[in-house]
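Example 9 (inverse folding). The structure is encoded as follows.
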């Protein structure tokens, strides 16, 4: 069962599409990510509570919805898989987050131009395909990442990450996953 971990929508169940195409971020990983953002000296509560969030490769939208539940002002979701998009729309509606969300049916590697840059960016692509560096470059070029924004990227544990223009501020390993926290230059 997939659910929101904390905040105003705590315990709300989320829908996930059947099959292996979408791999939602595990609850314990989401909890650890938001605990770090909340308490780390390089982040803090305001980083989440005042955030304009981009949840790219959003799948079910669990990361962006978790941020909204914890006080983020707005979340934009980018997803291209049809089954994941259907689940994402259902999850945004279930959380009554329609007025604070925008869903883009598209590719995070070829994003449309941003209307407004985001201050908290969540990237949870399929592992092992070098998507994070490519997405960082594409999203930066399209104006999605604000200067000084925090980026939370989940990768496979053994994946290398080259991120020119970003400074790594922390890293944690969780099972097969490695979560890297970056600050945009």
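The amino acid assigned to each position is listed next.
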């Amino acid at each position: 069962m997939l659910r929101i971990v904390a905040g105003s929508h705590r315990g709300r169940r989320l829908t996930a599409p059947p099959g292996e195409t979408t791999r939602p971020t595990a609850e314990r990983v989401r909890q650890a990510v938001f605990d770090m953002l909340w308490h780390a000296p390089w982040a803090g509560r305001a980083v989440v509570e005042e955030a304009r969030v981009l949840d790219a490769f959003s799948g079910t939208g669990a990361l962006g919805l978790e941020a909204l539940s914890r006080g983020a002002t707005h979340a934009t979701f980018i997803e291209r898989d049809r089954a994941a998009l259907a689940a994402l729309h259902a999850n945004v509606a279930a959380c009554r987050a329609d007025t604070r969300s925008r869903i883009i049916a598209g590719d995070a590697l070829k994003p449309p131009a941003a209307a407004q840059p985001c201050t908290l960016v969540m990237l949870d692509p399929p592992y092992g395909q070098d998507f994070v560096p490519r997405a960082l470059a594409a999203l930066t070029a399209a104006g999605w990442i604000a200067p000084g924004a925090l980026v939370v990227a989940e990768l496979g544990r053994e994946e290398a990450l080259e991120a020119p223009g970003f400074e790594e501020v922390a890293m944690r390993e969780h099972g097969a996953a490695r979560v890297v926290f970056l600050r945009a230059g």
